[in-house]
Amino acid sequence: MLHLTYFWEDQSNMESEKLAEYQIMAQIVNHMLQQPELDLDEAVNIFCKLSCNAHAIVDIAMEPLGIGLYPVMSVINHSCLPNAILVFEGKLAVLRALAPVEKGDEVLISYIDLSRTTRHRQDDLNGKYHFTCTCPRCSKFAEIDDQILDALRCKEGECNGFFVTKDRSYSRDQKLECNKCGLVKTSEAERSAKGIIDRLCDKGKSDFFSDNFQEAVSTFKRAEEAALDLFHPSSFSVMMVRNLLTKLYTTIGDTRAALESCRLMTPVHERLLQTLNPVRGMHYLTRGMLEWVEGNRGDGRNYLVRAGDILLLTHGTNFPLVKELLINLAKDHAELAKKQEEGPSGS
């Protein structure tokens, strides 16, 4: 761990709650190992270093599988407009360029989910990595339109505004002000609203894993209604619930309902994510397959091609899913060309 000293010199930027959590973890480790000589301060320092330098190991859909410490990768800085991406082939961390990187250019990756507005990305970065991002995308922090996409609705009387911060710099516990009526709330009100949706989603997942699929559908629909009632229709909260609904409908074989839910997410992905983002690529893959199954071959082919273009660049052909997709697209292209050569009569 000594070589990580350069990445974490002190604990001054870490919140007291997080430090207290690491102190408890150090005490637990000490109790489990039964080593009185263990330096608790050093153990806390190691946990701090891990929290700032470890990477989430994710699958091709960017869903977390665990964490890993990759010292070389830990020197790469974050940007919300990255020019590279870190992907994992098993335990192997692979850095892939998303755009041409010239000599002297800094290689930048994203540490977080980028399908959020500036304030929520800053929350994620401060909570997990203890810094405030100053990349070009985050320079939009004071833009109200950017915040509204993930903001809490104002329900004061007939007001239809959204709670945003008018500060020009980030702080974790900012005051939120309705952009229409001027009512002020704390960010705790926003976290409380998200808690309502999280509890419904947790229940829906529990229903699903208990094979109570109809109850799961009902619960997730309630979560979708709550998210639409509390937040902007293009918010991350609404998209998260619709993503779960799409997966649930697909699992139980209701591809029509899955496609309807999936279609609602497409404009949100395209608005919030860079073109070369694997989450966007996986969304196109899902929509393409659903369109195809529902008999919309043209639309299905279009979205599958777009998925292939993204995932080939972000992940390459070492991933079986990408390799299979490209093979199937090549077969479909060959069959389409053959039909065009044969003409309408097939002769």
TrEMBL record:
Q: Which InterPro entries match?
A: H3K4_H4K5_MeTrfase (IPR050869), SET_dom (IPR001214), SET_dom_sf (IPR046341), TPR-like_helical_dom_sf (IPR011990)
Domain SET positions: 1-112
Q: Give the domain of life.
A: Eukaryota
What is this protein identified as? Histone-lysine N-methyltransferase ASHR1 isoform 2
Q: Which organism is it from?
A: Theobroma cacao (Cacao)
Upper lineage: Eukaryota, Viridiplantae, Streptophyta, Embryophyta, Tracheophyta
